[in-house]
Amino acid sequence: MNDPDETLNPVAEPTDAAVDTDVEVDAESASVSEAENDIELDQLESDLESVDAALRALDSDEIDQAEALAAALIDEAPAED
């Protein structure tokens, strides 16, 4: 007969080697993701500075400069999929 402490459908536990590999992959994925986030943050900060400059140009009635800054932002915008 079956031992009552024994499960009918045991789930295989990962080995230490499998756990170590998962940790390495997760750490690598995290560092790649962090680098991508840093690049995106830098781009957003640059865009914010351009918008700020365009708004300051509008405030000082420098319409041509504001239009040029706005056009540069539109040209730099990545295409959305």
Structure overview:
- The longest helix has 44 residues, at 16-59.
- This protein is mainly α and 81 residues long.
- It has helices at 16-59, 63-76.
- The protein has 2 helices and no strands.
Radius of gyration: 27 Å
User: What is the oligomeric state here?
Assistant: single chain
Mean pLDDT: 75
- Biggest sheet overview: none
Portion in helices:
over 70%
| CA distance, first residue to last residue | 60 Å
Q: Which H/E pattern describes the elements?
A: HH
Shape: rod-shaped
Question: What's the number of helices?
Answer: 2
Structural class computed from helices and strand pairing: mainly alpha
Spans of at least 5 consecutive residues with low confidence: none
Binned strand content? under 5%
The counted number of beta strands is 0
List keywords for this structure.
81 residues, mainly alpha, 2 helices, 72% helix, rod-shaped
Quick overview of this protein structure:
The protein contains 2 helices and no strands. The protein has helices at residues 16-59, 63-76.
Question: What topology does this entry show?
Answer:
Layout: H1 16-59, H2 63-76
